[in-house]
Design brief:
The protein is α/β, with parallel strands linked by helices. The chain contains six helices and nine strands. It binds S-adenosyl-L-homocysteine (SAH).
Length: 212
């Protein structure tokens, strides 16, 4: 087993499974995707640390546990159309590409989107459409989505994204209230939206029309 593969297996057991992640598809995907490919050459040794890491443009790749918590809450079975806001390094995008059929991912920093595209090519993720722009408005032309993952903190669940959520669909979004930030899962049932608080969290801000 390579050193990175051993670190990945250790991460899955001790950072994820022992801390309550039990979706076997999520655990398997995180045991396969090479996180070291996404963190930049200078930080490869830190790739499996139990922490967020800088990826340039003042942004971060999220801590493995928080990525897993988002993916688990989306309850993907395969076959869904997924929208992701905040491609960043492309790590979470690569995981989504393994867990479902089609992923549309939006990043506001063109430079990050370019390097994410390279990382995703290196991992042979082909069912991904990358877009550059303000994802807080979603991608109306591609809606509805069965699941939406937002990787940046919003003042409230962006209304445009809620509109683009399919019936029965799930959205996961970090929401800021005062000094607190809560990872929140929302399910659409007809005109009703059910909301569940998942975990306190800390994300970079969602910058845009329906963000900050
Ligand atoms: N999922 C990423 C981590 C992303 S960090 C990974 O696995 O590496 C959050 C990202 O959201 C940053 O790259 C930031 O530039 C982006 N972002 C912030 N506001 C945005 C917006 N309105 N639209 C699209 N991307 C946004």
């Amino acid at each position: 087993m390579s050193d990175f593969a051993a670190q990945r297996a250790h991460m899955v057991e001790h950072q994820l499974r022992e801390r309550g992640i039990d979706d076997e598809r999520v655990l398997a995907a995180m045991g396969e995707v090479p996180r070291e490919t996404f963190v930049g050459e200078r930080r490869q040794e830190m790739a499996y640390a139990d922490a967020a890491l800088p990826i340039g443009s003042e942004q971060t790749i999220s801590q493995p546990w928080i990525v897993a918590a988002i993916l688990q809450a989306l309850e993907l079975k395969g076959g869904e159309r997924v929208l992701e806001i905040g491609t960043g390094s492309g790590y979470s995008t690569c995981l989504l590409a393994r867990l479902t059929d089609h992923v549309v991912s939006v990043e506001r920093h063109a430079g990050l989107a370019r390097s994410a595209a390279e990382h995703l090519r290196a991992c042979r993720a082909q069912n991904v459409e990358l877009m550059v722009g303000d994802g807080s408005r979603g991608v109306p032309g591609r809606a509805p989505f069965d699941a939406i993952a937002v990787h940046a903190a919003a003042p409230k669940p962006p209304p445009a994204l809620l509109e683009q959520l399919a019936e029965g669909g799930r959205m996961v979004v970090p929401v800021v209230t005062g000094k607190e930030e809560m990872l929140t899962a929302i399910r659409r049932r007809g005109t009703e939206l059910e909301s569940i608080a998942l975990s306190p969290c800390r994300f970079v801000p969602l910058i845009g029309a329906e963000g900050f």
